[in-house]
Amino acid sequence: MNEPAIKNARFPLPYATPSYSTPENIQKNFSSLFPSLGFYPRLLNVVISGGNLAKQGKYDGAEWNKSSLNTIRALEYCGVKFEISGLEHVMNLHRPCIFTANHMGSLETFALPCLIQNYQKVTFVIKDSLLRYPYFGPLLAALNPVVVTRKDARTDLKAMLDGGAERIANGHSIIIFPQGTRNLVFKPQEFNSIGTKLARKTGAPVLPVALRSDAWGNGWLLKDFGRIHPQLPVRFKFGAAMDVSGNGKEEHAAILDFISANLRGWGVEVQAPPGKNSPRVTTT
Question: Which structural domain range is residue 180 located in?
Fold first, then answer.
């Protein structure tokens, strides 16, 4: 395991055991009194540092681990508490996998990599506009993501299937968020079956991930810069990997059941049972 060396590494690492809870003795100071003001300068440092390394061709999986873990720590210093479970399913993977999760906000985009990258090389599906951001764009480009435009659903679906298959063939797992948009309410009817479609095409297993991440809120003007809410716990739960057979409907239904059941248990609203799946592909 490639453990990133960071400040305060005396605390448990969130990916080192099957479950993790934020320690009570993590130091809190100014950041916990003014969580948003305390968090965003730390995040900016993570992004600028990673972007500079990417421009030099030095941003690799180990550096991504550091960026991801430092983001989790920054949130913890602000008083945000993480509860992570089911990591044994990630630890026991011996081949590339499709991680299929609900999508609430920016937090999971930053936090998931260090939970997976130590066991599986992994990348995301992203929208092309993110590649134009200063520092963040070069950082993302270094991760060999699957890029879509979100302008044409048919073109994006082909890019997702072909690009995803290429990454999996090269040994990379993929994290996808098959919803129409970020949403604090889980709407199964908007959670499309791109995960099982890609699994059928590649033969890779699909692994459901349920998450509650509204502690990092969505902003009004810029979605990525919402308020930090330390009173809201962060919950990640990984399910068992599934091989997809036939048309994949049973596996897709199992993914929806897993995510819905956990979200309800965490107090997140889940709407009525799904109808026809949307063809849209959601990106980070």
Answer: 81-130+149-265
